[in-house]
Amino acid sequence: MTARFRRLLAKGGPFIGLILVIGLFALPAETRGYFLTYHNFKIIFTQSVIVSVGALGMTLIIVSGAIDLSVGSTVALTGVGAALLIQHGWGPAAVTAAALGIGALVGLVNGTAVAGLRMPSFIITLGMLGIGRGTAKWLADNQTVNYDASPINTWMTTARPAGYALPAGVWVAVALAVATALVLRRTVFGRHVFAMGSNEAAARLCGVPTVRLQVLVFTLAGCFFGLAGLLQLSRLRLGDPTVAVGLELDIIAAVIIGGASLNGGSGTILGSIIGALIMAVLRNGSQQMGWPNYFQEIIIGVVIIAAVFLDRFRRGAKA
Amino acid sequence: MLNLSIRDNITLTKLGAFSRLGWISRRRQAAAAARWTADLAVKCRDAAQPVGELSGGNQQKVAFARLLEHPARILLLDEPTRGIDVGSKAQIYALIGQLAAAGKTVIVVSSYLPELLGLCDTIGVMRRGELVAARPRREWTEPELLRQAVGTD
Fold first, then answer.
1. What DSSP string describes B60-116?
2. Which of B1, B9, B24, B44 should one mutate to test binding to chain A, selecting the residue with the greatest count of A CBs within 10 A?
3. How far apart are the C-alpha atoms of A100 and A228, rounded to whole Å?
4. What is the pTM for the complete model shown?
C-alpha cells in the first residue's frame, strides 16, 4: 500500500465508514423507501446531538491524554439542576448559564484532582461517576423533577420547526463543532493540548503549562457536558437523575471511531462528529429494520473494534 | 512530540511569538518552518507532516530547529547523535561547528569517544557524578578518556 493511499485513508477513514453504514440501510427493501429521506436525516441529526456535543468535550480530553468516565452522571446532574431552577422560575438564558456552570464545576473538580493529586483521570472520573450520580439523586430527592413548561423544551424536537428546518440543538452543535475544531487546530491552547497528549513530560520541558492546561481542558469539556445535559433535559422535558447511564461510553466510542487515539495526541473534531453520526445512523437504521435492541448493541460493539483495528492498519505497522 | 507536525514542533516552545491573542499565524509559522527545514536539510514532504513519520536523523534535526528558534548563548546537547544515520550525524556535527564559530557555547554530552575527540575544544570526564578531569582535546586519547572514566590505572 502506498503512503499516499494510506494518507487518504487516514483522512477519509471515518467518512468512508459513515457512507458504508448509510449504504447498508439505504439498500434493503425494508428501509429503502424511507431511510434516505430528508425527514429521517433530520431525526438522525437530532438524535446524534447529545453524543456529538459530548464528543466535542471528550475529544479535548482524549487528545490531551486523559479520559472522562463521569459524563453520564454530569448530564444527569445538570438536567436535575436545570429542572429545579426552571421550577423556581428561572428563564432559559439563566438556566443555560447555570447548566454550563454545573458542568464546568464538575470538570474543574475532575481536572484539579487529576492534575493536583497526580492521579490517573480514569480513577478520578470513575469516582466522579458515582459522586455526580449520587448528588443528582440527592438533589432530586430520588424522583424525577417535573416542571410546567419551558422554551428549552423546543430545542430538540423534530416536530418544531416543521418541514426542512433543523431544531436549535442541531445548529448549536454545528456551531460549537466548528469553533472547537478551530480552537484545536489554530490556537496556542489547541496546539498545547496536542503536545501534552503526545508526550506530557516533553511538553512540560517545552514550556507548556501542563497542570493549568489539564484543569482548563476538563473545565472546558465540562461546559460541553453541561450543555449536553441541558439538551437531554430538553428531550425528556423533565429532570431525571437516572438518565444517561453509560452515555460516556457512547461518547468515547464516537471519538475513537472518529480516529482519536486513547494514548492521546491525536484526534479530530470532524472525526468525532462523524463517529457520533455513524452510531446514530446504526441505531436509527437498526430500528427501521426491526432489529431488536440487543442486536443493535452487538453491532455497535463490533463497529468500535473494527474501527480501531482499521485505524491501526491505516496508520501502518510501525505506529 | 511525534504526533505533532514539523512546524508545530519547531515553534512549540515559543508559540506566543507566532500568535496574537492565542490565535496562531500560519504564515509566520510556515516561514520559520521553511527556513529551518532548508537550513538543516530536513527531508520531509511538507511542514505539516507529523515528525513521527520522519527518520531518526530528521527527527533530531527538527529537535535542533526547536532549540535554535531561541537565541540562547549556551546550548546543552545530550547525546545529539544517538541512534541516527551517518549522513544526519555529519550534518549535525557541521551544525555544531557553525554554532561554535558563531560564538555560542555548546556543551555536548556523549558516550561515543571518537565523536567527542572530533568535535570538542575541551573534554571533561564525569565519574560517579563528579568532574574528574577537564583538558583541551589534544591532551586526550581514547584510552586516557576511558581510564579517567573508569577510574583505574
1. HHHHHHHHHTS--SEEEEESTTTT--HHHHHHHHHHHHHHHHTT-EEEEE-S-HHHH
2. B1
3. 9
4. 0.88
- The kind and range of the H/E element at B126 are strand B122-127
Indicate the burial class of A9 (C-beta count within 10 angstroms; 0-12, 13-18, 19 or more).
Answer: middle
Q: Does A203 touch chain B (CB under 8 A)?
A: yes
Contacts of B24 in chain A (CB under 8 A): 186-188, 191
Instruction: Give the separation between CA A9 and CA A202, rounded to whole angstroms.
Output: 30
Task: Please report which confidence band the pLDDT of residue A112 belongs to, taking 50, 70 and 90 as the band edges.
Answer: very high
| CA distance linking residue B120 with residue B135, whole number of Å | 10
Identify the structural domains of chain A with CATH numbers, from first to last: 39-315 (1.10.3470)
Q: Residue written as cell 490531551? A: A64
Report the run of H or E that residue B38 belongs to, with start and end.
helix B26-39
The owner of cell 541512534 is B83
- Per-residue pLDDT band for B69 (boundaries 50, 70, 90) equals confident
* For range A90-97, the mean pLDDT: 94
Lowest mean pLDDT among A8-12, A130-134, A135-139, A192-196: A8-12
Interatomic CA distance for residues A178 and A182, integer angstroms? 6
Q: Which of A166, A143, A135 is nearest to A42 (CA)?
A: A166
pLDDT tens-digit series, residues A33-59: 888 888 899 999 999 999 999 999 999
Average pLDDT, chain B: 87
